[in-house]
Design goal:
Number of domains: 3
Oligomer: single chain
CATH superfamily of the largest domain: DNA methylase specificity domains
Helix content: 25-40%
Number of helices: 9
Length: 388
């Protein structure tokens, strides 16, 4: 690092001193404590996630992946820093996180460090390394790539790098500010989760007819009729091959099994439509697609005849298409099979009321997701300017 001292672009006015070029070993020390007394069981093994931080492995992954014995596992106290020596797409040299929740244990494949509190604030270190460019720039010179992309660096070697750091007082002030942003992001994520749960519950009540809408005069609508999907909708056979994504760039979105992939100028539907994933891991997922978009050949295009498209979309969202799966290697569903699926159909006026009501909830979920992304981008911009 050429400059031994520097100052960030954005800074709290009460701090004016330069940030100093410091070895990480001056801020952290290797944690030597092992689970020799078996104080912690396999139920208390921790995982390290790029998005969620350090979390209980069973809660995060649904099961424990611990070995036969955990007596040599590292003990991770609250406040400790953990370096995960596993490459991720955005972090090819691993990730660094602080344990903020509950003590536990991690495999010996992880490096665990105590914070030297006289020199460093643990949360500041995690915030610093939460920015991919900071993390990758620090680890790149220290880590050797082994066979099968394994990361070769000892726990001690991982502390030998340098980075610029302010006083502990400034570290704490920056941390408080960034924590407030994180709290805002988490509140927005919780709002989105609650909206999604509300939508799920209200859909169950609507389609079980526990909850019914009324006409403009306050009267009950007629009973719903039971019809087959193939009688009220049809499959449009026009879709595109996966290799067309790279061959035909343009201004139109293309949908894959996980949603929008990228924009291409190829075959496009000129009005909204429903798509159902017919191949692979996401088989049976249902999307409402915008006009002037396309789908991969792994999705079916479904269009309504007289039925309201929004009503049909929401009804199909809670339909179990997995019962139509065939194929032992790659799961597949065929329209010729699932077109026999029974659809409860109210009169058009009630269809519109239901579709409009549920789409308004989706709009709220979409706006909340946009707020999450905007706040995350705002935080990223601050991280890039509050550190050096």
């Amino acid at each position: 690092m050429e400059n031994q001292t520097a100052k960030p672009v954005i800074r709290f006015p009460e701090f004016t001193d330069n940030w100093n070029n410091t070895k990480l070993s001056e801020l952290l020390k290797e944690a030597k404590k092992r689970n020799a007394d078996l104080k912690y069981t396999k139920d208390e093994v921790l995982s390290v996630s790029g998005e969620m931080g350090i979390v209980n492995q069973i809660e995060h992954l649904g099961r424990s992946y611990a070995g036969v014995s955990v007596h040599q596992y590292h003990v991770v106290e609250v406040g400790d820093i953990v370096y995960t020596k596993s490459p991720l797409k955005a972090n090819p040299y691993g990730i660094i996180k602080q344990n903020k929740k509950k003590a536990g244990i991690v495999s010996t494949l992880y490096a665990v460090y105590n914070v030297k509190e006289e020199n460093a604030h643990g949360e500041f270190i995690e915030h610093y390394f939460s920015l991919d460019e900071n993390l990758n720039r620090y680890l790149r010179p220290l880590v050797r790539k082994g066979a099968k992309n394994t990361l070769q660096v000892s726990d001690a070697e991982a502390l030998k790098g340098n980075f610029l750091i302010p006083s502990v007082a400034e570290q704490k002030k920056i941390t408080l500010f960034l924590n407030a942003l994180d709290k805002k992001i988490e509140q927005l994520k919780q709002k989105k989760r609650l909206l999604a749960e509300y939508k799920k519950g209200i859909m169950q009540k609507i389609f079980s007819q526990e909850l019914r809408f009324k006409d403009v005069n306050g009267n009950e609508f007629p009973d719903w009729t039971n019809q087959k999907l193939g009688d009220i909708a049809y499959k449009n056979s026009s879709n595109i091959a996966a290799n067309a994504i790279e061959e035909n760039f343009g201004d139109y979105k293309i949908y894959g099994a996980s949603g929008v992939l990228k924009k291409v100028d190829f075959y496009k539907e000129n009005e909204e439509y429903i798509s159902i994933v017919k191949d692979g891991a996401g088989v049976g997922r249902v999307f409402l697609c915008e006009a002037n978009t396309s789908v991969l050949g792994t999705l079916d295009i479904i269009k309504a005849k007289e039925t309201n498209l929004y009503y049909l979309f929401y009804f199909l969202q809670q339909t179990n298409f997995l019962k139509y799966v065939t194929g032992s290697t790659i799961p597949h569903i065929y329209f010729s099979d699932y077109k026999s699926e029974k659809i409860l159909v109210p009169i058009k006026e009630e269809q519109i009321k239901i579709g409009t009501f549920l789409s308004r909830i989706d709009d709220k979920i979409g706006r909340t997701q946009a707020q999450i992304e905007q706040t995350q981008q705002y935080k990223k911009g601050l991280l890039q300017n509050m550190f050096v």
